[in-house]
Amino acid sequence: MKFSSALTSLPIMFDPIFVFLLLVLAVACGRRILGLLRAPVSNLTRLEYGSLSGALGLGALQMAPFALGCAGLLNRGAILAVLGLLAVVLASDIRAVLRVGASALRRPAWPRGWMLAGCLIVAAALGVLLLRCLCPPTDIDGLYYHLAAPKRWLQSGSLGYVPTLLQTNMPMGAEMLYTIALALWTDTAAKLIHFAFGALSLLAIFALGRRVRCDALGFAAAGLWLF
Hints:
Blueprint: H1 11-37, H2 46-61, H3 63-70, H4 76-89, H5 91-106, H6 114-133, H7 140-146, H8 148-156, H9 173-184, H10 187-212, H11 215-226
């Protein structure tokens, strides 16, 4: 099967939109999972709840291309159909996620003092990393197996054995998400998903530190992890 990943002329404009929509779907999926499990989330802050929902949802979305690959149906149309079906099923959760996000943007909690200065430094670092993510992949691991393996599977339409890529014998959960981006959007969008992993990790570390003691501890822990 012939397959080639699309390219966008302005990835800085269009790729973040695709990844944002995918993250909204992931958070909505995680929210539904927490509801089905009847998890005790009433004492969680909005940031903790969002981070946990995002982690669970991204883990669940990995199973979509994995199942399609096992069934020999790994292609652009099938992936789009599954995500579309999920969007319909999770419509109420998606509305709730967007409503909470809009509320947070209307009433942002701005940091004070040294934390504000630290946020500017973190934002600068993340900005540089974001620009690198929106450039064509040049790193060895990305070219050799992180993106090469999903492309090979999309070409074959199934999750077959790839003898020349030994890393595919390891867990490839993140690569399943890259498969979604490669099938529906671009290779730079796949890199942007990787960037989103880091951003979500920063938020989760901050939320954990804040729960343990205070905002300052969470911010310091997240900053140290980043740098």
